[in-house]
Amino acid sequence: MSRIGRAPIAVPSGVKVDVKSGNEITVTGPKGTLSRTFPETLAFTQENGSITVTRPDDSKSNRALHGLSRTLLANMVQGVKDGFTRQLELQGVGYRVAKVGENLVFQVGYSHPVLVVPPQGIAFAVDGTTKLSVSGTDKQLVGQIAANIRSIRKPEPYKGKGIRFAGEVVRMKAGKAGKAGGKKK
User: Fold this and answer.
1) Is the pTM for the entire model greater than 0.85?
2) Which of these, 1, 85, 135, 174, is most buried using a 10 Å CB contact count?
């Protein structure tokens, strides 16, 4: 039995989980509502303020779906309760971000500013001119939008300039051979 899949999901107060036929699950909480359809082979049981996910047999596909479905449902419960946030930071001379309305405008070394429009359910927050955060209820969507923002100007390995996740370590390269060890013979 999967260690992740068999762990029950605690449903906190203020969060309502509705399991419909066809394994469509809707989770409603203070931050919003999320809905997802899970595979028909899995069974979801709700009792005593927790949800358990069970699989019919130990086939390889059912074992893989068991832990995945449990984690996706747990992320939905956590998302509508607390939400998810990804922090990003800009490094480089002249690199900055500004919030214009709900949108973000980046100046990251291109000849033009780059505009990022948030999809439904995503909110941007800017701290100063070099730090920003992406927040929302759907963990996958928050991570995807943060990755899309990072891909506007990935951190380069020679000077470290670019957009990176907060706390991300970029391995730096030495540069030209002449800078590292003196004269070549």
Assistant:
1) yes
2) 135
